[in-house]
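A further point concerns the way the authors explain their paired sequence and structure data. An entry of this sort, consisting of the sequence and the corresponding backbone structure tokens, reads as follows:
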Amino acid sequence: MNTHAISAAPATPPLATSEFRSGWKTLLLALAGVATSVSALLIYSLGTLIVPLSDALGWSKADLQLLVSFLAAGGAVSVNFVGWLNARYGMRAVTGVSMLALVLAFASLTLASSAIGWLYLGYFLLPFIGIGTTPVTWTHIVNLRFKRHRGLALSLVLCGTGLAAAALPPLLSAAVARWGWQAGYLSLGGLVLVFWLSTAWRNLPAQGVATNRTPTDGVDGIPWRQAVGSRSFWTCNIALALVVSALYGLTANTVPMLRGLGFSAATAAGIFSSFGVALIAGRIFVGALIDRYWAPGVAAIVLAMPAIGCALLLSADAHTPLALLVAATALCGVGAGAEFDIAAYLVSRYFGLRDYGRLFGMHLGLVTIGSAVSPFAFGALLKASGYHPLFMLCGGACVLGPALLLTLGRYPDLSKTETKP
């Protein structure tokens, strides 16, 4: 196994502000884009809309929870086509059509009746309708604009999901309380429309990264077919799928496990709140580190931190100090915050930007499939053996996945990549 030290990559010079001075508009555009992406809007609105939908239309809360599965299934398929569409027709056209169609789609959800199947179908189709609004598009424009400080730029932009998580619940709660559950979906469509009309249509690149361009056109990288056939690409996919699946298991089961140890609901929730704080801090901190050091080495350390958190939680009981439990969940949160921007960074550094959209989209699709399947395995394990084997499995995945990243080797010289017809 390749055991490059973190210092194996040439450290970049001290942080300069030139890229941020000239690229701050791109950062704000992408930040708003991530916050109003179809996935962020639907995921972070669901918790607020479940009770109003259940009360108004008679669906059980368990039935409404399944909307997440249909959303994940649609996202896993649709995300594979984002890069190809952007390259073929240009980001401005694809994202513009997606946003306007998304506005109409959100409006159509207000017509939902007592047949929940229609809402399931809507949540499955929405990722296709809003295909141009996914993080694939927004991370792509950041990668095109930033080079020396790409990691930090990506981490800042991907904090848009945190903005959505913070802003949507109070906004939708107020709208639903005043006008009913339909106002929730109309508010989501309104956010997309305002973003498109005010900013996005003027600032997104009009042209795509054509599939027949060469490095001399300013876009270096490995052709899609060559990248997909490489060991490095599948190493990234397998390693990060292991970590993401484990983090899904930890996110869903930490609070119930703490309740099982005898902690009150309020105490367990308070302990787990450190997960969210660490997620944001970890994302920004890791983004700055991977600009200066070899990213797989940084990733191997940071993505293994949840394994330490699992070990601490496995040894916990009702008398464990709260500070230790907070530290354990924070370690899990650091890993959760780092995974997404590490994935975007690794794809851009090892395979370039020539087919970045298609490659990152394929990666997200594969990881989404893994994270959608893992809850079934975790559920079966939980029923059969309880929380301890589940947390041991999650901890093991957070050791194996990061270890695989250490085999990636040095960054390739993408300027020497030749485009094959």
Summary: The chain is about 75% helix and 0% strand.
